[in-house]
Amino acid sequence: MATKKAKKKPAKKVAAPKSKSGATGLKYVGAKPHQITPFLMFNANPEEAARFYAKIFKNSKILSANPMQADFVLNGQRFFSYNGGDHPNFKFNWGVSFMISVETQKEVDYYWNALTADGGEESMCGWVKDKFGLSWQVTPNILLKLISHKDKAIADRAQQAMLKMRKIDIAALKAAVNLTPQPPLRRRRPETGHLKERGSASARG
């Protein structure tokens, strides 16, 4: 005789603990499901770092910040940071960096100067470290197009030019691959002096 399977009872939902005022004990502005959020562990006050970055990048917003943690958005990218104290394992290095894509030399100069201010560090090929030790790449889009060009000769010349630069110089990069626009050739007018002389001689004859 067949036996009936016992129905599983649904798991009970455990509510977060609430204070007398009705608020939960921990307040955190959560990210959307499946969203990748960089988590930065600073050796000091993350609030100071968040405010430093928010002044540099447009369309930025600090969601919450204090000496222990900061939750902020830079140009639409979410970041969360924490104060890890002076621990040797929480040191930034060149192995992880954030790339800033730009179009013009004016934008390159702006981000380069802003991120190296107050003790930042310049490096090669468009890389910098800010005063908190976080690495950035200030990268004009033309650079990525040229070093991945289907013409290997152009890609090689672009890469060799990049390897000699600290801050990327767009004009110098274009010149290295012969993309600098040349002035149009002026058409020379035909010389008519000998025709005038010939006509004068005929008139005298």
TrEMBL record:
<protein>
    <submittedName>
        <fullName>3-demethylubiquinone-9 3-methyltransferase</fullName>
    </submittedName>
</protein>
<dbReference type="InterPro" id="IPR028973">
    <property type="entry name" value="PhnB-like"/>
</dbReference>
<feature type="region of interest" description="Disordered">
    <location>
        <begin position="1"/>
        <end position="22"/>
    </location>
</feature>
<dbReference type="InterPro" id="IPR029068">
    <property type="entry name" value="Glyas_Bleomycin-R_OHBP_Dase"/>
</dbReference>
<feature type="compositionally biased region" description="Basic residues">
    <location>
        <begin position="1"/>
        <end position="12"/>
    </location>
</feature>
<dbReference type="Pfam" id="PF06983">
    <property type="entry name" value="3-dmu-9_3-mt"/>
</dbReference>
<feature type="compositionally biased region" description="Basic and acidic residues">
    <location>
        <begin position="190"/>
        <end position="199"/>
    </location>
</feature>
<feature type="region of interest" description="Disordered">
    <location>
        <begin position="181"/>
        <end position="205"/>
    </location>
</feature>
<feature type="domain" description="PhnB-like">
    <location>
        <begin position="35"/>
        <end position="139"/>
    </location>
</feature>
